[in-house]
Amino acid sequence: MLLSVGRRPARRAGPGGEPGAVQRLVLFLPDDVVTELETRAGGNTGGFVADVLRQTFERARALEAMDRMRAVPPERGAGDPADVAAEVVGARRDWAAPARVKGPRAQRPAVRP
Amino acid sequence: MTRVDWVDDGRGRPHVAVGTDVVVGLLRGHRASEAAVEAAMYIFGRTPAISSLTRFELERGPRDARGRQRLEALLSGWPVWPFASGDAASAASLAGAPGCRAGELDLLVAAVAVEREAPLLTHAAPTFRRIPGLRVWDASAPPPL
User: Fold this and answer.
1) What span, in angstroms and rounded, lies between the C-alpha atoms of B83 and B92?
2) Shortest CA distance from B47: residue in chain A
3) B32 to chain A: which residues are within 8 Å by CB?
4) Where are the domains of chain B?
5) Structure confidence at residue A84 (pLDDT)
6) How many angstroms separate the CA atoms of B120 and B123, rounded?
7) How many CA atoms are closer than 13 Å to the CA of A52, on its beta-carbon side?
8) What residue spans of chain B are helical by DSSP H?
9) pLDDT confidence tier of residue B98, bands split at 50, 70 and 90
10) How far from each other are the two terminal CA atoms of chain A, in whole angstroms?
């Protein structure tokens, strides 16, 4: 049975992963313990433990995806401005907007006196 | 900024719907967005997910190869919820809520979260506060420890 997911401590290396890597904590439990867990979870026999397993693996996958994303430098410089909400909510509008193209004003030749 | 509503009332499946602005924050390397998503996972045991509508917004964004690579890396491990018929009906019912300031696309994203009983993690909490049935987690406020 897989119980938890977390990160390896930043300063601890060794078998099983690099420092900071996503780790799965796995405990193998006897059948009677699993049955007891499922009974306490409302008699959902066969569902509770399977749900815990699936959800924990989903979170591990999500964490690993974030790590893969971080391995690629951001499109623009990484930053942490004081008002993240204003910056990021504004960025969402910019993000979803079509790429800007220069309009007729920019292409118009300069008028000379 | 409105106080965070991080308290989990135990309803529904253990997912958190991540709003487009938070994902944009992740893609642009903002530590506050990363901290909010990781808190949802570590502290509250939630799996992050996005709606297909959020994916639509995200797919329009990257301007270069690195932005595309970061987006694809993230989507490789995050569930994407489709926008279903029930979500459309739910969004229509939410649209008339009094005081609701959310735009059309925001309403659709909110409906996907409401139908799955998932809280919405967003930096734009005030925009979503008045949507009935939607639990909003403010990604700009630290979770209580």
Assistant:
1) 13
2) A59
3) 80, 84
4) 28-138
5) 65
6) 10
7) 18
8) 20-27, 31-42, 52-59, 65-75, 85-94, 104-115, 125-128
9) confident
10) 82
d(CA A47, CA A67): 30
Chain A residues with beta carbon closer than 8 angstroms to that of B31: 80
Q: Do A96 and B69 touch (CB under 8 A)?
A: no
Q: A63 and chain B: CB distance < 8 Å anywhere?
A: yes
Q: Which among A6, A65, A79 has the least Cβ separation from residue B73?
A: A65
A76: CB partners within 8 A, 6+ apart: B28
Whether the pTM exceeds 0.90: the reply is: no
Q: A32 forms bridges with which residues in the sheet?
A: none
3-class DSSP state of B142: coil
pLDDT 10s digits, B26-78: 988 888 888 899 888 877 888 899 999 999 888 887 667 888 899 999 999 89
Please determine, for residue A52, whether its predicted confidence score (pLDDT) is greater than 80: no
- Domain B28-138 in CATH 3.40.50.11540? The answer is no
Q: What is the ipTM of this complex?
A: 0.79
B62, B26 Cβ separation under 8 angstroms: no
